[in-house]
Task: inverse folding
């Protein structure tokens, strides 16, 4: 006789199993409703992934109903979104209306979204692999805060990724694993839904045992959850061992095919393969077809007891853990195991059959407890209410506003005019910040993928130290070997040094840039890299912005101006990438004072409720700084442009430049002004901000936004309105000319746009600017062409 606690445990498992079935149902029905029942106005397939959801339902039930604590945070496999929304609905955090409107405007999102969903999404997912890395770096961010006492030991959460097995093909996962190892990351659980299927097919067998080895090599504890309790019990019977060995060695495609075909097919194949083993044949014969099919497919990842025990075992320490939970894609659905099931949708007949099998009554499909006795309902409601994760705890925070340094403070760091580069100005401002003793400077955290020194963060790091959970003195310093860099590692260090993996940089920025909502603690992350290598981490940058993480990105050096470094390092498309990226304001200052003003602005934007991250595209080119007659340039710098040499009203020509080519623009302007003293010279600090402001201004006129007020005139319209309607514009930028060529559309003025349209090469500035037509002569040629 089982003792009392055993019985209680069994009862609880039975209740959990019931909840799990209802979650499976609700997720399946939500997708079914969106595709088959809701009115379609455009004929598009709505989509949703019933098979991928079924694969993970048990795992998510075990986690959300038992194992998760409120401080734990999860990145859910994107295509298991309906399971997540169904669970949050059970917790009362997601409305029925939103489930009904799954994948329609304002409803539950196709893939969990921090910014678009209302049901407390911890980390957005969608681009596979990125959510996985996010959890490792969220844990790093948590350690960073914990080292400062900003997260208390008892409040430390586990950062959990629920991922698919094919997701393991994404290389960024291993970049993150390596960085996590170097940073001694803990409190991370990566749980693989190991269903042996990807989108296209069954996955290759060759990596079968290798994943565990990879993670073990990186110092993670590996838990392989292969078998369910039901299977372990069967394998313990005479002949059972052969059955276990058969599954163990079965190729993925054969296992999947038999899973689809069901009990009779299993029997036929097993009887043939194990014909020599009388015990095993007898064991097989003891099962009916249905039961044999279930026995062969109810793997560890579908067994609540197995999962709960594993999560319990893992909860006693903070070691990073890699769980391989064996599952079946689409388990219990008509297309289980079928290699084409990724986007498969049940037909109305099939979903009705599932409904009946799960005991949900017709017409009550949206009631998760339909068809249950009132005692069962009460018991299930009690279990849901008792889930630790259901506790009424604030999980998204608003951090108090931190006073940031004003532009005047930062301007002092670059005062003196003379000749400077924007990159050096950035370093000076960072050094000034490192000397401050205010709250703000303690909340600045810098990070760089092995280009800390070459992007001028060295001064800051020398003063503020490198963050590491394990202190490590700078050996060169101790041995008194002269070096400009003192890199002591301490828990209170304010720089996160990364290996050369730009993807990681952006995910670290995403994690550090979300500490305010995640932990209630504002950080001001500053990340640096070489401008061309933004492209290497572009999807991760987009991912950071999609989650509305806030940071300052400093990309330097940039453009052809990197001259001798050659074509592989000379970035071309940065300005256009920046313009096209939502959530990121892109600036390319020319001068040191502009750089300081923009940094102060960027720190404000990090905190503003409707703010954004900032990308500064900087240069190592040392150029003469302008004499400032008044302060008009300051607002202009933030708004995106100002007249460095104002034109006379009605002028027929203006030169427009961005960034490091200011000297060429100025030289050309002086030559032009001899003949056309009325011409103007426009300094554009942000084609991005200008363009967005201009499109918004236009929209406001036809949508009536701000109606009642005077019509909104955008910054660029008002700047260009000084010129004659028929004026010509010559634009000059060290990057794609596309960034500025649109200026002609603002007032219908003619444009000649100079910039980089082919790959550069090594050289010095005169040679390269001449060859690529970015010099004053090229500007004058363009002027002549316009005026001809
Ligand atoms: C970066 C990226 N590439 C491609 C996709 C499209 N995609 C979505 S799911 C998927 C396959 C996922 O297979 P797996 O991770 O095993 O998940 P399962 O559905 O089997 O649980 C693919 C290729 C994507 N979402 N992100
Ligand atoms: Mg899979």
Result:
């Amino acid at each position: 006789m089982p003792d009392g606690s055993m019985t209680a445990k069994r009862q609880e498992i039975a209740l959990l199993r019931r909840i799990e079935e209802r979650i499976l149902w609700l997720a399946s029905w939500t997708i079914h409703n969106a595709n088959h029942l809701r009115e379609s106005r455009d004929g598009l397939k709505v989509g949703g992934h019933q098979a991928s959801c079924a694969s993970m339902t048990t795992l998510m039930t075990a986690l959300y109903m038992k194992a998760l604590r409120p401080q734990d945070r999860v990145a859910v496999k994107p295509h298991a979104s309906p399971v997540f929304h169904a669970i949050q609905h059970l917790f009362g955090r997601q409305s029925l209306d939103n489930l009904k409107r799954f994948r329609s405007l304002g409803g539950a999102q196709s893939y969990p979204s921090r910014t678009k969903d209302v049901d407390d999404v911890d980390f957005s997912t969608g681009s596979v692999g990125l959510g996985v890395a996010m959890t490792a770096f969220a844990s790093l961010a948590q350690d960073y805060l914990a080292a400062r006492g900003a997260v208390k030991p008892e409040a430390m959460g586990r950062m959990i990724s629920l991922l698919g097995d094919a997701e393991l093909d994404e290389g960024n996962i291993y970049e993150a694993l390596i960085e996590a190892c170097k940073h001694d990351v803990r409190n991370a659980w990566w749980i693989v839904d190991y269903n042996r299927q990807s989108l296209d097919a069954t996955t290759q067998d060759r990596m079968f045992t290798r994943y565990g080895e990879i993670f073990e090599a990186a110092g993670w504890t590996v838990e392989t959850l292969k078998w369910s309790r039901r299977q372990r019990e069967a394998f313990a019977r005479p002949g059972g061992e052969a059955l276990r060995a058969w599954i163990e060695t079965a190729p993925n495609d054969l296992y999947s095919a038999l899973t689809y075909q069901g009990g009779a097919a299993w029997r036929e194949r097993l009887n043939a393969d194990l014909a020599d083993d009388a015990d095993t044949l007898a064991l097989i014969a003891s099962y009916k077809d249905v039961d044999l099919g279930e026995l062969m497919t109810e793997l560890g990842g579908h067994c609540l007891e197995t999962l709960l025990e594993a999560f319990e075992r893992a909860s006693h320490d903070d070691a990073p853990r890699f769980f391989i939970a064996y599952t079946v894609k689409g388990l219990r659905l008509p297309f289980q195991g079928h290699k084409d099931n990724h986007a498969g949708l049940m037909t109305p007949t099939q979903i009705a059959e599932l409904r009946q099998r799960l005991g949900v009554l017709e017409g009550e499909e949206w009631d998760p407890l339909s068809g249950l006795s009132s005692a069962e309902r009460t018991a299930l409601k009690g279990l849901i209410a008792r889930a630790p994760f259901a506790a009424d705890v604030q999980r998204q925070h608003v951090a108090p506003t931190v006073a940031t340094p004003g532009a005047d403070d930062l301007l002092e760091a670059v005062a003196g005019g003379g000749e400077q580069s924007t990159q050096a100005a950035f370093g000076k401002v960072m050094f000034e910040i490192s000397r401050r003793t205010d709250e703000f400077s303690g909340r600045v955290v810098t990070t760089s993928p092995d280009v800390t020194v070459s992007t001028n963060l060295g001064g800051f790091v020398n003063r503020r130290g490198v963050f590491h959970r394990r202190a490590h003195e700078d050996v060169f310093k101790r041995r008194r070997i002269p070096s400009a860099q003192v890199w002591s590692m301490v828990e209170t260090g304010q720089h996160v040094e990364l290996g050369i993996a730009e993807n990681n940089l952006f995910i670290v920025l995403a994690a550090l840039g979300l500490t305010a909502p995640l932990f209630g603690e504002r950080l001001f992350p500053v990340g640096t890299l070489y401008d061309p290598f933004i492209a290497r981490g572009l999807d991760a940058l987009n991912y950071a912005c999609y989650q509305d993480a806030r940071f300052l990105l400093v990309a330097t050096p940039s453009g052809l101006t990197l001259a001798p470094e050659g074509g592989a390092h000379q970035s071309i498309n940065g300005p256009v990438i920046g313009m096209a990226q939502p959530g990121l304001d892109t600036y390319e200052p020319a001068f040191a004072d502009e750089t300081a003003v923009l940094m102060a602005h960027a720190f404000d934007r990090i905190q503003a409720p409707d703010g954004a991250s900032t990308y500064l595209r900087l240069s190592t080119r040392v150029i003469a700084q302008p004499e400032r007659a008044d302060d008009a340039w300051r607002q202009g710098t933030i708004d995106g442009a100002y007249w460095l040499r104002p034109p006379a009203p009605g002028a027929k020509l203006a030169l427009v430049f961005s960034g490091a080519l200011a000297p060429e623009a100025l030289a050309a302007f002086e030559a032009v002004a001899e003949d056309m003293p009325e011409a103007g010279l426009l300094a554009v600090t942000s084609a991005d901000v200008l363009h967005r402001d201009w499109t918004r201004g236009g929209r406001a006129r036809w949508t009536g936004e701000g109606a009642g007020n005077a019509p909104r005139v955008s910054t660029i319209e008002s700047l260009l309105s000084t010129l004659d309607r028929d004026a010509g514009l010559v634009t000059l930028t060290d990057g794609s000319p596309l960034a500025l060529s649109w200026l002609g559309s603002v007032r219908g003025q003619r444009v000649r746009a100079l910039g980089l349209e082919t790959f550069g090469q090594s050289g010095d500035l005169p040679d390269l600017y001449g060859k690529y037509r970015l010099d004053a002569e090229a500007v004058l040629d363009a002027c002549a062409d316009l005026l001809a």
In short: The chain has 34 helices and 20 strands.
